[in-house]
Amino acid sequence: MSTTFAPHRAEEVDEYPHDYASLLALDHAHLLHPQHHPADHAEAVIFDRGEGAILWDVNGKRYIDGLACLWNVFVGHGRQELANAGAAQMRKLAFVNSYVGSSNEPAITLAARLARLAPGDHLNTVFFTTGGAESSDTAFKTVRRYWALKGQPEKSTIISRTNGYHGTTIGATAATGLAAFHPNWGPPAPGFVMVPPMDIGAIEAVIAEHGAGTIAAIIAEPVQGSGGVYPPPADYFPRLRALCDHHDIILIADEVITGFGRTGTFWGLDQWNVVPDVISFAKGVTSGYQPLGGIIISDAIREVIYDQPSASRWWHAFTYSAHATCCAVAHANLDIIENEGLVARAAIMGARLQTGLRAYASHPAVREVRGLGLMGAVEFNPGAVPGGVPALAKAMRERGLFTRTRNDIVMFAPPLVITETELDELLAIFGEAVKATIGH
Ligand SMILES: Cc1ncc(COP(=O)(O)O)c(C=O)c1O
């Protein structure tokens, strides 16, 4: 087969149209989206730019960014500091690998910085990924390897929780407790057991049934996010920590949404003064300006992994692990979070969000209002919203508020920099959309 090589010219990009209708047609023709269903994209919003907590689409329409896009744009859109940090790093160095005998300065100093930011004094070693699912799979492989190298290879089962979301690689899917993600992808990854969330007794039952000697770790989000924003009872994580200690089970905190200040403390588990053995992170570490994630492991795990002959080294890798540009942007992002006091701000603005949403707790169509810090949700009674929650989402969108819904749940997690006025506007638009959709 012969192929002709057509060199790419910058002008070629401009041969494509810029108007909404043409872009939408091209999107429909060529772009397969995450969790794709064509109906979702029939009238997709095509975003163009953002500033702080505000987004504009290609038609110039303004929206409040109700979910920090995908729970990740913590410092808000349009931050020149992050663009500059990325551009400066790219100008210096396109890429170096981080494999055998090779490293780079932004990755080294970011690992040190994250070790300093990690809770307790035993989380000091970082492996970088490019997102949450890679972090989940890395954590699962790491804890299994830890036990195997310690002479307990049968200690391999990962316990996870229903309603939890950990990503959609094969391993992360197996740990994800949202039923829709499971069917029709072929054989699932073995070695995963699901328990109801918030129920320590259910974990005790699994341990009693399978034996602690078969269980490597439990993974939990401090506040379940994508499943619909479920904060735990105050004693849940302290009890889970004690249970893990008692049975020699590793506690993996999936801080992909809750890390870097979302709940009003730097880590989600700081809410209950619980220190895990492994932290999985992504999203807020770069506020979405670059794809970066990773895990922070305990000294105990590190020791076992490091203390191996060459042949049984850490056989785990991603080309883009410790990418210098991503790490440089993460530094600039953490500078903003620190310099602008955004963790404390999340607590203050979070209280405002929770108060605003709780006003709907007595609405006859509402089943429950939940939240912690700057993440909140309103769950409606099944069938209570004419046209379903998608109709409510449409009404919000028309009024200039963009966020995500799941089943009967509307979720909010705006950028931590959202202003008081913008947050009040978010709440007002939600209220108007509820009234327009439900009638009162
Ligand atoms: C708690 C949690 N873990 C993992 C993931 C997966 O991250 P990614 O989509 O970057 O793979 C997500 C994504 O929303 C998440 O919320």
Q: What's a quick, concise take on this entry?
A:
The protein has 14 helices and 15 strands. The relative contact order is 0.15.
Structural notes for this entry:
The chain has 440 residues and is an alpha/beta fold. It folds into 2 domains: 129 residues, Aspartate Aminotransferase, domain 1 (Alpha-Beta Complex); 258 residues, Type I PLP-dependent aspartate aminotransferase-like (Major domain) (Aspartate Aminotransferase, domain 2), CATH 3.40.640.10. The protein has 14 helices and 15 strands. The strands form 3 sheets. Strands 4-10-9-8-7-5-6 form a 7-stranded mixed beta sheet, sandwiched between helices. Helix 9 links the parallel strand 7 and strand 8. Helix 4 packs antiparallel against helix 11 and helix 12 packs parallel to helix 14. The longest helix is centred in the last third of the chain and has 19 residues. The chain starts with 9 loop residues before the first helix and ends with a helix. The model has no long low-confidence stretch (mean pLDDT 96). The structure holds pyridoxal-5'-phosphate. Pyridoxal-5'-phosphate binds next to helix 6.
Distance between the termini: 65 Å
The strand order across the widest sheet is 4-10-9-8-7-5-6
CATH fold name of the largest domain, please?
A: Aspartate Aminotransferase, domain 2
> What is the arithmetic mean of pLDDT?
96
Overall tally of structural domains: 2
What is the CATH homology-level superfamily of the largest domain?
A: Type I PLP-dependent aspartate aminotransferase-like (Major domain)
The CATH class designation of the largest domain is: Alpha Beta
SSE order, one letter for each helix or strand: HHEEEHHHEHEHEHEHEEEHHHEEHEEEH
